[in-house]
Design a protein that fits this description.
single chain, about 200 residues, 7 helices, globular, binds biotin, membrane, transmembrane
Length: about 200
């Protein structure tokens, strides 16, 4: 019978925690890049690329944890959202649906990434693109639309029109995510995208 030494387990756990923290920190760094404000209260921000990256790089569970950690830091008042915003009030603003969606979209992105081929850098990049479009774009926007309807009291068609404005930019982020995965897959061939075992 083979047993796993306890130090191996704790080393894996520590590595996992470090990766979760790293992607939460990456979101904070992305928050330093200025947002572009649009009239309806939802800014253009690079942070949605961080959501996609957390999902494809860490997988559903740890990707979601990293976003939850980031959102918890924002909720307690750290000014980590683009433009230096933070505090519980941001979860009552028109963009709150997107914010809540960060954690769930990372989970969906990660789950899709885990299910798709990644045997070569090119396949991993294509899988990352598909996972980002479905999770980091479609799923995130679904939460955004829900938030706009519940908080900003928009109709479904108004909320849909608002979210459509972000699609071209977010599509470019999906391409960037795929390019980053391609680079990581070439440089770190052992990396398990989507948290695959
Ligand atoms: O910082 C916030 O208050 C949340 C902003 C949410 C912005 C959403 S995320 C998806 C879409 N893409 C963007 O660039 N902006 C919106």
């Amino acid at each position: 019978m083979t047993t796993t030494p306890s130090h191996t387990v704790s080393r894996g756990g520590a590595r996992s925690m470090a990766q979760v923290s790293l992607f939460a920190a990456l979101m904070a760094v992305m928050g330093l890049i200025p947002k572009i404000d649009l009239p309806f209260g939802v800014p253009i921000t690079i942070q949605s690329l961080g959501v996609m990256l957390a999902g494809v790089m860490l997988g559903p569970w740890r990707g979601m944890q990293s976003m939850a950690l980031f959102l918890a830091a924002v909720a307690v008042g750290l000014p980590l959202l683009s433009g230096g915003r933070g505090g519980i009030g941001v979860f009552m603003a028109p963009s709150a649906g997107y914010l809540i969606g960060y954690a769930l979209a990372a989970a969906v992105t990660g789950a899709i990434m885990a299910a798709l081929p990644q045997s070569t850098p090119r396949r991993a990049a294509l899988s990352a693109f598909i996972a980002s479009v479905l999770g980091g774009l479609l799923c995130l926007h679904a939460f955004g639309v829900l938030g706009l309807m519940l908080i900003a009291k928009m109709s479904l068609s108004q909320a849909f029109a608002v979210t459509l404005a972000f699609v071209p930019g977010d599509f470019i982020k999906c391409i960037l995510c795929a390019l980053i995965v391609h680079t990581v897959a070439r440089g770190l061939p052992d990396w398990r995208f989507g948290g695959r075992r």
